[in-house]
Write a structure and sequence with these properties.
OB fold (Dihydrolipoamide Acetyltransferase, E2P); Elongation Factor Tu (Ef-tu), domain 3; six-stranded antiparallel sheet
């Protein structure tokens, strides 16, 4: 028993010595994956920058639909280079298409009625009116002949024809004459064609329906999103079946609204938007003397920058953070530089970089 205790004690002591030895060993530090950025200028100032596509103003081109709807087709792919007018995305337009067809049919019906009014008098209708005039003339002659016969008989022998029969024959002549006058006026009315007020009213009705059709057609075109200019598709937020609106598409990860599509510039260079802290603004050199260098994070690459423009408005620094969560009123001045894309390095819009600005 004493031997077992002695053996266990010796093993424990040996283990403690080994643990103490191993714990005191100093591991050599690993070499850094890349050197941290350094200021290449004696009086240079630092600014955080973000890469963006080359645009004459603004940042990347964000595309939002002007109407709400369900995504029916996505005809572009991320990274695809597109030309101006290329169809990128189609929303479900079944209801609007039916509305356009309905208004088009109504406008066509109104135009047909307008053409009918302008084409009056119709030859067949005028022929009927002329025949009615001839018929009334014949009826008048028949009535007049009957009256003449009865009047002649009455003049020879008043007892041969009653006074009542003679009066009836005279009334028949007057009625036939009135019917002839009505037939002539109806013929003249038909010959005159449609009333100008009816034509004007129908013309305005057609114009109103046609403009409604054009308006509905223009709205129908909004269900198809096209590339406003040549560019590269940087991002497509929704998928087929997703609902989008003028506020954009819902992002499940950020739980906010994002642009439906983002287009970048197809040029061989990018822009760098730097946010210079307001405390450092007085130290900025004049634009004609301004030089800058960009360091790509995670690498030792340093790229010279060319001054492009400045937004002369100091604004809150919310561009790189969530405005709803911003607590400190840090204000920055945006300065935009341009760089040529390196052939041996991948750079993408939205990437954060370190920028040093000097003279």
């Amino acid at each position: 028993m004493r031997k077992i205790i002695f053996t266990l004690s010796f093993v424990g002591l040996l283990a403690g010595v080994m643990v103490a030895y191993v714990s005191n060993l100093v591991q050599p530090a690993l070499p850094p994956a890349f050197n941290p950025p350094t200021n290449p200028y004696s009086k240079g100032i630092y600014a955080e920058g973000i890469l963006e596509s080359d645009q004459p103003s603004g940042e990347n081109m964000n595309i939002y639909p002007e109407v709400s709807g369900t995504v029916k087709q996505i005809l572009a792919a991320e990274g695809q280079e597109v030309r101006q007018g290329t169809v990128l995305l189609v929303l479900d337009d079944s209801i609007q298409s039916a509305t356009v067809e309905q208004l088009q049919s109504q406008a066509q019906a109104a135009f047909t009625l307008l053409s009918e009014l302008k084409a009056q008098p119709r030859k067949e209708t005028l022929d009927v009116n002329e025949a009615q005039v001839v018929s009334m003339q014949a009826a008048l002659k028949t009535a007049q002949d009957e009256l003449d016969k009865q009047q002649a008989a009455y003049d020879l022998n008043p007892k041969s024809i009653s006074k009542d029969a003679l009066d009836s024959a005279a009334n028949a002549v007057a009625a036939a004459l009135a019917n002839l006058e009505v037939a002539r006026k109806q013929r003249d009315l038909t010959k005159a064609g449609a009333w100008i007020f009816d034509i004007n009213n129908q013309e305005r009705t057609y114009n109103a329906l046609y403009k409604s059709y054009l308006s509905a057609s223009a709205l129908l075109a909004k269900y198809t999103l096209r590339a406003p200019k040549d560019g590269i598709v940087l991002a497509i937020s929704p998928t087929v079946g997703s609902f989008v609106s003028a506020q954009g598409a819902y992002d499940s990860y950020t739980q906010g609204m994002t642009p439906v599509l983002v287009l970048g510039s197809p040029h061989a260079h990018l822009n760098v938007r730097c946010y210079v802290d307001e405390i450092l603004v007085p130290r900025l050199p004049a634009p004609a003397q301004m030089k800058a260098q960009m360091s790509v994070r995670g690498s030792t690459v340093k790229i010279p920058l060319q001054y492009l423009r400045m937004q002369p408005l100091v604004s809150p620094k919310i561009e790189l953070s969530d405005q709803r969560l911003e607590k400190v009123d840090v204000r920055v001045l945006p300065v935009i530089f341009r760089l040529e894309k390196p052939k041996d390095l991948n750079l993408y819009p939205g990437q954060l970089v370190d920028v040093y600005i000097g003279e």
